[in-house]
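Treating backbone geometry as a discrete language has practical consequences that deserve illustration. The sequence in question and its structure tokens are set out directly beneath this paragraph.
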Amino acid sequence: MDHAEYQRMFEREDRYWWFVGRRRLALGLLDRELGPARHGREILDLGCGTGVVLQELQASGAHATGLDFSSEALEFCKQRSLENLVLGDAQALPFGDRTFDAILGLDVFEHLESDVQAFREAHRTLKPEGILILSVPAFKWLWGPHDVALHHFRRYTRAEAVRKLEDAGFEIVQASYAVFWLFGIVLFTRFFEKFRRGPARAVLPRVPKWANDLLIRLQTAEGSAIVRGMRWPVGSSVVVIARPRIE
């Protein structure tokens, strides 16, 4: 991503509804799969960006490592006083086989030229009982300036994400769309951004605090339903939980 996008992420991901909802969902799924005690667990925040998820993982007592291909992103992580930062490529992870109890890949794989190779690397570096939790943007027909600004290669359907993970050696625990209740807002925003002039920018519309708080509550409730096993039929993201398949 460009410097301006990293700066906007760093400034807003602590409190902006979309980031907060995604983070709570991912950590809720992690607690469900590993148990609430993360202390001592080896967890990889794959594509850690500016570090808010990694910050929560490390604060919980997990032995969490943050990897990103951008040295600029890791500099923002250092501003949060985070440790265990690695500059690297998800398509060729600089870790040994069976290293991690869990890998979180939140809106990472769409940035990679070969997502299939990255799935294989995640499979290689997970312990046999390990868990992969990922989110990716949904539906090619939602493609727009937002995707261009963030240097995406693709958007996914749930079926496509499942197929690629299975091809890489995973078995699927759960796969669902997310951002279901607010999908109409996303559609509205993405439609009108196509008419915006100027360079492509990621879409994070400013909202007043009361609205941001309401959206966080909605996303938290929706995410809690996914944690309980709900599978939403549509949404602007795809969330998948997968384990290495036992042959």
